[in-house]
Write a structure and sequence with these properties.
alpha/beta, Rossmann fold, 7-stranded mixed β-sheet, 7 strands
Length: 334
């Protein structure tokens, strides 16, 4: 997925730096936690290195993606793929609320693709409830649906708004595509909790933190995927059809609260090594992060230039530069 904050292009930088600081070259026997997991790029990488991975994200669609990538390994029965792809579309929640043909006034998907998404989502739930697919197959196919349907979204990038007319990629007929299966020494554990609550009940060796850098809430940017993931028929509000996401709003997206929740997180973390990804345009300053982390042990910092994520036109953006400086703050905790 083309995801805000994705570390796909930085993964080698993260791997090399974490290995240099920790001295760990083989993760077998070690616990790695990725607690703002997003699409699972970092956790999946360290799973392949042999670590037992703990992943977490407050967004449910992210939880589902990571339930597959972190908790699943081969073999998984994928034989129902053709069956799911040949289902007839139905007028379900996605069509009724996110497609213009329903009269919703929203144009997130073509009518055909919205109906097809509904058919697959409803069938996955029925198959799972009736015991016709296992838990691991359910999470696998649901993760595949979330990842696949995103490629047919009629948006500029995120779901903060839809386009007036169906663009070329969104007009193509939706097809469910399989995600890779990440094999590792051990399968991990995935949570869907507030990080500052979860941190008090887990422990390990390496903690990786990739919080939001600015005031934009992920729950607003990806609310359509959240609803497809939960399929809980929420009440939607406004032109863009936002769901109530009060409980998912991150304190890391507020300048008023971020410093306190960040320091509490560091204080409560029962991990020897803590790594924080952040950039030079984030809500917390470099000096603030350094001041907090130095209280709890030996601090160091590594940097890398990184191409900025773009979800709109250059002339509409507050920051005009095409790249940012990505910081990896490192703490060896006392």
């Amino acid at each position: 997925m083309n995801y805000i904050g994705s570390k796909l292009s930085l993964i080698n930088f993260l791997q090399d730096t974490i290995q240099t600081v920790t001295g760990i070259t083989n993760g077998k026997g070690y616990v790695f936690a990725d607690l703002f997991a997003g699409t699972g790029i970092v956790g999946s990488t360290f799973k392949q290195q042999g670590y037992f991975v703990i992943a977490n994200d407050i967004q449910h669609y992210s939880y589902i993606l990571n339930k597959h990538f972190i908790e699943n390994s081969s073999p998984i029965d994928t034989s129902k793929l053709d069956y799911l792809n040949t289902l007839e579309g139905v007028d379900g929640f996605v069509y009724q609320n996110y497609c213009s043909g329903s009269g919703s006034g929203r144009n997130y998907f073509s009518d055909v693709n919205g109906r097809k998404c509904d058919a697959i989502r409803i069938e996955l739930e029925d198959l799972h409830l009736n015991g016709q697919i296992s838990d691991k197959e359910y999470y696998y196919f649901l993760a595949c649906l979330i990842n696949s349907i995103d490629k047919y979204a009629n948006t500029a990038s995120v779901y903060g708004a839809f386009l007036k007319h169906i663009k070329k990629s969104a007009a193509k007929e939706f097809s469910l595509k399989l995600l890779p299966i990440i094999d590792g020494t051990e399968n991990g554990l995935v949570y869907n909790e507030d990080i500052n609550i979860l941190i008090k009940s887990i422990s390990g060796d390496v903690l990786y933190l990739d919080p939001p850098y600015n005031a934009r809430q992920y729950c607003s940017n990806y609310h359509v995927l959240e609803t497809i993931s939960r399929y809980d028929h929420p009440k939607l509000n406004g032109v863009t059809g936002l769901r109530d996401s009060t409980k998912q709003k991150s304190a890391f997206c507020s300048k008023r609260t971020i410093t306190d929740v960040f320091e509490q997180l560091i204080a409560d973390a029962q991990f020897k090594y803590i790594f924080l990804s952040y950039n030079n345009e984030g809500l917390m300053s470099l000096d603030t992060i350094k001041f907090i982390m130095e209280k709890y042990g030996k601090y160091s910092i590594f940097t890398k230039d990184h191409r900025r994520f773009k979800a709109d036109k250059d002339e509409n953006r507050e920051h005009k530069a095409s790249a940012t400086v990505e910081y990896l703050h490192c703490l060896t905790k006392n």
